[in-house]
């Protein structure tokens, strides 16, 4: 469920630029040293269109390309661009021979030296399902402030069919900061689903997670309140009066959908993709075991040892009375467990001092600390409206079999409850070989077409 952090997975910007006196069009590539041991390749495609300079940013190591940048400028031999929403900027000076930019990339206050040079071949990662304009429906940027009305909180895209909508479906993304398309490795699953639904007569709203500074302090309860704010605002629109309202959540987003649907009468149905029905500690234990086994890098004994360590730490997180106590006790137990391991075993079981620092920061964060105290079953049993759940049989992040058993227990007998366990699909609902997350960027298909058919067919039945 937890998504890995990708330093440069957050470039989603509008294009701007000025005509430069020197022709710098072409592909530029370089490496950023994000730590002493790790580096990240980035690429910049620059080209002129109607005397205006445009740029697209690539991250080949993360399998994405073609993200436009903002505030692009090339003047006095200096190239610069910014990402204001994420406190990121780049500035580099071109060499006298015009073959490289020597500069600095800054993100969240950290500076990384980066030399961009010409000559490398640009790698593109085709995603044939990603919708492209012109669209046979209307799109509208719809943004909301927090309840005080003072601070921007939610930015999103509303899609509207030309005719009266058959329903409105609000999309809720999974764990970790996500943009409105739930973009990952150049896949944009929410854009694909929204396009499919709107073409068949449904309005949709998909939105970026809270601004990063707010997101870092938020919990799953805050995400649920964000959905309620969206409902408060969108249901005031004249063109959405009287339509049925649905929530579509992926991964942790399905938990948020359950939390809102359990006590909000305005929600008429929910759709759960790779849905959550177990407490987070059970999900993490399944995830680490399943992925380790699929990777084939650990023996069964090593997998069991790793899970024993994880169980010990998770039990501490669940029992602690506050975040400070959580950090203190994790540190104490970590030292105790690590003292029994060789240096090689510490690396194998992710028990190095660096891992310890990351674990303490993560488990004592507001989001993780509260998530360990949420039991999804509490909300599932309160849902009275129709539910569609679709999980991949090869999902190695959330156990489809256990999810099915729990949902069947609490939802069977309710109107229009269906659970589809799809053969050969992973957590992103892509057709896959093993289900290992390492395959996600290698698969061109964003979401299996049969999943889209199920969603549309079921929503049409709801709309009747």
How does this structure look, described?
31% of the residues lie in helices and 26% in strands. It has three domains: 26-118, Lipocalin (Beta Barrel); 138-279 and 374-463, Alpha/Beta hydrolase fold, catalytic domain (Rossmann fold, 3-Layer(aba) Sandwich); 280-371, no CATH class. The radius of gyration is 23 Å and the shape is globular. The chain has helices at 189-199, 212-215, 220-234, 252-261, 280-295, 300-319, 323-338, 343-348, 353-363, 366-371, 377-380, 400-411, 449-463; strands at 26-33, 39-49, 52-59, 64-68, 70-75, 78-83, 88-94, 100-107, 110-118, 138-145, 152-160, 167-172, 203-207, 244-250, 269-273, 387-392, 417-422. With 464 residues, the protein is of the alpha/beta class. It contains 13 helices and 17 strands. It has a nine-stranded antiparallel β-sheet with strand order 4-3-2-1-9-8-7-6-5, with no helix packed on it. It has an eight-stranded mixed β-sheet with strand order 10-11-13-12-14-15-16-17, with helices on both faces. The longest helix is centred in the last third of the chain and has 20 residues, at 300-319.
What's a concise summary of this model?
The chain has helices at residues 189-199, 212-215, 220-234, 252-261, 280-295, 300-319, 323-338, 343-348, 353-363, 366-371, 377-380, 400-411, 449-463, and strands spanning 26-33, 39-49, 52-59, 64-68, 70-75, 78-83, 88-94, 100-107, 110-118, 138-145, 152-160, 167-172, 203-207, 244-250, 269-273, 387-392, 417-422. The protein is an alpha/beta fold.
